[in-house]
């Protein structure tokens, strides 16, 4: 029987400048082990779907047998307060001694989601060698080996931030003006890969963040209804509600904050797309749970090489609100748009690994 992951946290890692030469075969094997471990470990965490993980110095190291890979990434984990990764709660060495010591309780649809991300970035920035900061969910899988992913991300000076003008949903609250003018209001996926400069901007921000705390929240009228009458996930229930500008604004902070903050003077330094693929529309599916515009969770039966190949073949992204088509490139050449994909249940991810479909 398939095992659903009902509580989701996030895991991430940080990319560093190449310190020593790495031999890709052994390093890629260790990276494969890392990704499997992240899925297993986060599944055991009693976390909220809003909790995030980033990366930083001294937390994640490849074993000495990786011949150089230990200097290419490290990990921070934000878990619910009171939870401890140890040998009883995870089989992975990559999660031991990697938790931040000032984690907070995170509630979906609240600014606490952003607070958790800022905590992680703050810790990671303490190491001056840390250069890229990638946010991933425990339901993410890598589509390529570590060497390819590392090279793809490190070969550009931009951050990868899914960002587009939000003109349809009525989430913008006029009370945000003039600190956040409507022409700077952006939406996008929270699964970003940030440069050090942009990570520092987020951590140091004391102007835009308070506005989000005051005026960007999930509509609590819907929260009560969801808890009392809805048997589906609260997150999915929220996403299905129609936006109505005449009522309280239903604003989801993590879908707007980074994008809107960086829209002021820094948008030219972004590659305005995410490296993490999500399927937002399976309206033709017979499975009622898969209809709507919330991301689809792939189950064991979905996890096939054909699915992965279809994601790998995506080479452009269309942003309707801006009449913009983003053709994906790396080093000036056409390239796949996505390095990761979500949302995969643990059984689905393990099935892909067991069939060698991920080719890690």
Helix and strand content put the structural class at: alpha+beta
Number of helices: 10
Q: Give the tally of β-strands.
A: 15
Catalogue the unreliable spans: 1-12, 17-68, 222-247
Report the average pLDDT across residues. 75
**Rg value:** 19 Å
**Beta-strand residue fraction:** 5-15%
Briefly say what this structure is:
With 360 residues, this protein is α+β, with helices and mostly antiparallel strands. The protein has helices spanning 24-44, 112-124, 146-154, 196-204, 208-215, 220-229, 234-239, 257-263, 305-312, 346-354; strands at 10-16, 73-74, 130-137, 141-142, 159-160, 164-165, 186-187, 193-195, 270-271, 276-277, 316-319, 324-327, 329-330, 333-334, 340-341.
What keyword list fits this structure?
360 residues, alpha+beta, 4-stranded antiparallel beta sheet, 3-stranded mixed beta sheet, 10 helices
């Amino acid at each position: 029987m398939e095992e659903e992951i009902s509580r989701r946290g996030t895991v991430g890692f940080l990319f560093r400048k190449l310190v020593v030469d790495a031999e890709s075969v052994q390093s890629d094997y260790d990276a494969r082990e890392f990704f499997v471990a992240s899925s297993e470990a986060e599944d055991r965490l009693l976390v909220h779907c809003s909790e995030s993980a980033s990366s930083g110095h001294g937390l994640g190291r490849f074993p000495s047998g990786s011949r150089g890979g230990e200097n290419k990434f490290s990990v921070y984990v934000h878990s619910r307060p009171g939870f401890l990764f140890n040998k009883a709660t995870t089989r992975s060495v990559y999660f031991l001694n990697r938790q931040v010591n000032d984690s907070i309780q995170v509630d979906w649809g609240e600014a606490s989601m952003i607070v958790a991300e800022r905590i992680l970035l703050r810790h990671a920035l303490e190491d001056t060698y840390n250069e890229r900061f990638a946010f991933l969910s425990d339901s993410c899988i890598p589509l390529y080996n570590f060497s390819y992913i590392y090279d793809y991300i490190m070969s550009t000076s931009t951050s990868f931030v899914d960002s587009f003008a939000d003109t349809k949903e009525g989430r913008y609250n006029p009370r945000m003006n003039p600190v956040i003018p409507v022409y700077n209001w952006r939406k996008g996926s929270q699964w970003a890969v940030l440069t050090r400069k942009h990570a520092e901007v987020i951590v140091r921000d004391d102007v835009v963040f308070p506005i989000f705390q005051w005026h960007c929240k999930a509509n609590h009228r819907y929260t009560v209804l969801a808890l009392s009458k809805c048997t589906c996930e609260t997150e999915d229930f929220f996403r299905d509600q129609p936006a109505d500008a005449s009522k309280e604004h239903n604003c989801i902070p993590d879908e707007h904050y980074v994008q809107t903050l960086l829209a002021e003077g820094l948008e030219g330094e972004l590659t305005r797309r995410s490296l993490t693929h999500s399927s937002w529309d399976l309206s033709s599916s017979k499975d009622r749970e898969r209809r709507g515009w919330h991301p689809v969770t792939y189950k064991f039966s979905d996890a096939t090489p054909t699915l992965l190949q279809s994601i790998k073949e995506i080479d452009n992204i269309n942003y309707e609100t801006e009449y913009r088509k983003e053709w994906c490139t790396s080093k000036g050449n056409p390239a796949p748009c996505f390095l990761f994909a979500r949302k995969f249940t643990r059984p689905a991810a393990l099935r892909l690994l067991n069939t060698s479909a991920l080719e890690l």
